[in-house]
From TrEMBL:
SMART domains linked to this entry: AAA
Domain AAA+ ATPase: 61-177
Superkingdom of the source species: Bacteria
Entry keywords, A to Z: ATP-binding, Nucleotide-binding
Keyword ATP-binding: yes
Any one Gene Ontology BP term: DNA synthesis involved in DNA repair
InterPro entries: AAA+_ATPase, AAA_assoc_2, AAA_ATPase_RarA/MGS1/WRNIP1, ATPase_AAA_core, DNA_pol3_clamp-load_cplx_C, MgsA_C, P-loop_NTPase
Lineage of producing organism: Bacteria, Bacillati, Actinomycetota, Actinomycetes, Kitasatosporales
Positions of the UniProt region annotated as Disordered: 1-24
Single GO term (MF): enzyme activator activity
Pfam families for the chain: AAA (PF00004), AAA_assoc_2 (PF16193), MgsA_C (PF12002)
Name listed for the protein in its UniProt record: Replication-associated recombination protein A
Organism of provenance: Streptomyces capoamus
């Protein structure tokens, strides 16, 4: 039998007994206007609206769409809404359990339905990245000939996980993580709407805030936790979901952490100071608090990049590349996997040898500039590439260091007022010891007197 999770019979059963379905299923939007978030994909004339025939002008909507985004952002929901809005057959397959045989069965069924009943088919393929190349190849004839409208979903980068022939025939739409306001609006609708909890319970502000932290931008997770907590509250004979009830239900304590207030900055400060102090365990504790409280992983990654230069610098030249790589990885993968990347970088930075020489060097140089200690650029260093520069004495007398055996020329580089100023004072920690030797040697060969 052809797999079809959203058959007319199943929909009819759900409408007759909505309480028999999970809250996340009952609250699934029925139209594009009910979809939470993703407004960049739902503007008038957008591909999704053209796909369902809303405001279509000119060519028909795309025959194949790939939805790429984190879990819980509405990929299945969008596919379901398309099928409802267009009155097409809707068939869902999961790449975890389906294979080429199931795909061919759906395609054959779609061709029969199209020829016999004139009804088109939407094939929703979840987690397409789990399909092998051969399995993805089996979709190409159906997409090429428009036997089905394919809507494929993936949480992984489709440029790496989807074969190029299928990707080139599809419209790629990127879904964004839901904001707290998006999820908050959905929760409040679920509390009051008849198909939701129908006013059976209320959600105080502290419980709602903890629920938002648990959700982490995942609508499905938020509704599942709300349903479980509501059931626990009603079992106690309570109509308000207390924070303690939610904590007991999801087995997750509420972290005292205000992402917009003092705790946000206090814990971030403690993380950086623990790294600076080389206490890897304390640093991991504060990192865990920030992660558990739902802190933006990009904020954490930015702090780590600053720490790599501010407190480690040349004592471990690999610290900054590690922090930058972590920030790039975090931007690509997001939570929960980003926790591993942030842990990796935090441990590396905490255990690295420390030096603040880069911080003090630029601080001293900026201080002199702000005091007005600048002066003109020495004539031999000025640009001599334009006509008339030589008459002004620009670049005259400049010695090209590469022409000398030791690669360094004894000539003045700084303005007169700063010619003997030394800003960089290297430590002898870790790899910076070699920079300490190098700076002594170069200053001596430049004929510099340290001030």
């Amino acid at each position: 039998m052809e797999p079809d999770l959203f058959t007319a019979a199943a929909e009819e059963r759900q409408e007759k007994d909505p309480t028999g379905s999970p809250l996340a299923v009952r609250m699934r939007p029925r139209t594009l206007d009910e979809v939470v978030g993703q407004q960049h994909l739902l503007k008038p004339g957008s591909p999704l609206r053209r796909l369902v025939g809303q405001g279509a002008k000119g060519p028909a909507g795309p025959s194949s769409v790939i939805l790429w985004g984190p879990p819980g952002t509405g990929k299945t929901t969008l596919a379901y809404v398309v099928s409802k809005a267009t009155d097409k057959r809707f068939v869902e397959l999961s790449a975890i359990t389906a294979g080429v045989k199931e795909v061919r069965a759906v395609i054959d069924g779609a061709r029969r339905a199209s020829g016999g009943y004139g009804k088109e088919t939407v094939l929703f393929l979840d987690e397409i990245h789990r399909f092998s190349k051969a399995q993805q190849d089996s979709l190409l004839p159906a997409v090429e000939n428009r036997w089905v409208t394919l809507i494929a979903a993936t949480t992984e980068n489709p440029y790496f996980s989807v074969i190029s022939p299928l990707l080139s025939r599809s419209l790629l739409l990127t879904l964004e993580s839901l904001t707290d306001d998006d999820v908050r609006g959905l929760l409040r609708r679920a509390l009051t709407e008849e198909r939701g909890l129908n006013g059976a319970v209320t959600l105080p502000e502290d419980t709602e805030n903890h629920l938002l932290r648990i959700a982490g931008g995942d609508a499905r997770r938020a509704l599942t936790a709300l349903e479980a907590a509501a059931g626990a509250a009603l079992d106690k004979g309570e109509t308000e979901i207390a924070l303690t009830t939610l904590e007991e239900t999801v087995d997750r304590g509420a972290v005292k952490y205000d992402r917009d207030g003092d705790q946000h900055y206090d814990v971030a400060s403690a993380l950086i100071k623990s790294i600076r102090g080389s206490d890897v365990d304390a640093a991991l504790h504060y990192l865990a608090r920030m992660i558990e409280a739902g802190e933006d992983p990009r904020f954490i990654a930015r702090r780590l990049m600053i720490s790599a230069s501010e407190d480690i610098g040349l004592a471990d030249p690999q610290a900054l590349p590690i922090a930058v790589a972590a920030a790039q990885a975090v931007a690509m993968i997001g939570f929960p996997e980003a926790a591993l990347t942030l842990s990796h970088a935090t441990i590396a930075l905490a255990l690295a040898p420390k030096s603040n020489s880069a911080t003090t060097a630029i601080g001293a140089a900026l201080d002199d500039v702000r005091k007005g200690l600048a002066g003109p650029v020495p004539p031999h260093l000025r640009d001599g590439h334009y006509q008339g520069a030589a008459k002004l004495g620009h670049a005259q007398g400049y010695v090209y260091p590469h022409d000398l055996p030791e690669g360094i020329a004894e000539q003045q580089y700084a303005p007169d007022a700063l010619k003997d100023r030394a800003y960089y004072t290297p430590s002898r920690h870790g790899a910076e010891a070699r920079y300490a030797d190098a700076v002594e040697w170069t200053r001596a060969h430049l004929g510099r007197k340290r001030s």
